[in-house]
């Protein structure tokens, strides 16, 4: 009969290996959840941008062509808080429609590989979203 109480070295090593495997799996799962949440935040910013563009159009009779992250809106630009975390490019802004491309610039805001940029198209108030991968391929069906 064994008089010693405790675990053998082999039992401790197996326990540590199991804990290491579980930690690796949970960290990978956490990274995926974090990337999807960052993409959802980018979608929320796009929705806010669309709403602010509609307010801007009501006030100035056209869509804004520039974005700022601070100050007050005027006839030169539209103010979107937290815009410094994203690269927002407005193109073809006029009195009837606008197109915006949104990409995160902050390294902490990683998005899934297939959802690197979000495109927002507005034509007479009707909104349409598309996503692009890092290589520029249309990945809307995978991301939205």
UniProtKB/TrEMBL annotation:
SUPFAM superfamilies membership: Pili subunits
Lineage: Bacteria, Pseudomonadati, Pseudomonadota, Betaproteobacteria, Burkholderiales
InterPro entries named among the record's database cross-references: N_methyl_site, Pilin-like
Stored Pfam families: N_methyl
Highest taxon in the source lineage: Bacteria
Record protein name field: Prepilin-type N-terminal cleavage/methylation domain-containing protein
Alphabetical list of NCBIfam families matching this protein: IV_pilin_GFxxxE
Cross-referenced Gene3D superfamilies: Glycoprotein, Type 4 Pilin
Keyword Transmembrane helix: yes
Keywords: Membrane, Transmembrane, Transmembrane helix
Keyword Chaperone in annotation: no
Transmembrane segments: 6-30
Signal peptide positions (record): none
């Amino acid at each position: 009969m064994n008089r010693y109480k405790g675990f053998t070295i082999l039992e401790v090593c197996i326990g540590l290996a199991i804990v290491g495997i579980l930690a690796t799996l949970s960290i990978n799962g956490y990274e995926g959840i974090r990337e999807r949440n960052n993409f959802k935040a980018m979608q929320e910013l796009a929705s806010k941008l669309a709403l602010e563009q509609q307010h801007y159009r009501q006030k100035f009779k056209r869509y804004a062509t520039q974005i700022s992250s601070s100050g007050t809106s005027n006839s030169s630009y539209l103010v979107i808080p937290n815009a410094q975390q994203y690269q927002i490019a407005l193109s073809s802004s006029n009195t009837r429609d606008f197109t915006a491309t949104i990409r995160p610039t902050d390294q902490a805001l990683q998005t899934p590989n297939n959802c690197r940029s979000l495109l927002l198209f507005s034509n007479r108030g009707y909104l349409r979203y598309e996503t692009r991968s890092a290589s520029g391929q249309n990945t809307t069906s995978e991301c939205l």
